Amino acid sequence: MKENLSENEKKLENYNETLATEKKSFKRVKEEKLYGDAEINKLRTVKADLEKELSESTSKISDLENKVSEATKKVENFEKDTNEVTSKMVKEKEVLKNDLTQKENEIESLKKELKTTLSNKNAEIENLKEDRESRANEINELSMKVKSLEESLEETLAEAKGGPKLIEEIKDIMIRKGFLSDREFDELLLKLE
């Protein structure tokens, strides 16, 4: 029995040691659990903060996406308007270019016409100058003939008995007409005879 008792005491000591170890272990686990709970609470707070930030970020992202979408539409509209304006400007430029080319062609045509007209007018002027010179020569010749005839008439009239009357008639005709034809002169001479 004594052996039994000593065995039981040993067992009891082993149990006590095991119990002390288990208590230490339990205490450590309990401390770890408290630490874990504190960490979990911290993580829950961090999670809540992160969820709040995520929600705010999601809201901001949504707002930014809307703004980007609006900006994209504005850019598309601007590009569309720019393309339309550019297209109109290109068309207007082509029209103006064609108009300018047409006007340049018209100007060149008018220049050629003016050169031709000027050349023709210069030729006409030269012809008119030649005609004028020719007529001036004719007038000079006629004037000389008239002077010669006047001189001849004056001599003849001075010799003739009706000279003063003939001279008066010749002067009247010359004043009226500016010249005396051969026929008129012959008629006047016939009157004197």
Short description:
The protein is mostly helical. Helix content is 95%, strand content 0%.
The portion of residues assigned to helices is over 70%
The computed structural class is mainly alpha
SSE order, one letter for each helix or strand:
HHH
User: Which strand-content bin applies to the residues?
Assistant: under 5%
Low-confidence stretches: none
C-alpha-based Rg, rounded: 70 Å
How many domain modules? Answer: 1
The largest sheet, given as strand count, sense and whether it forms a barrel, is: none
The beta-strand count equals: 0
Average pLDDT, rounded to a whole number, is 83
Query: What is the global morphology?
Result: rod-shaped
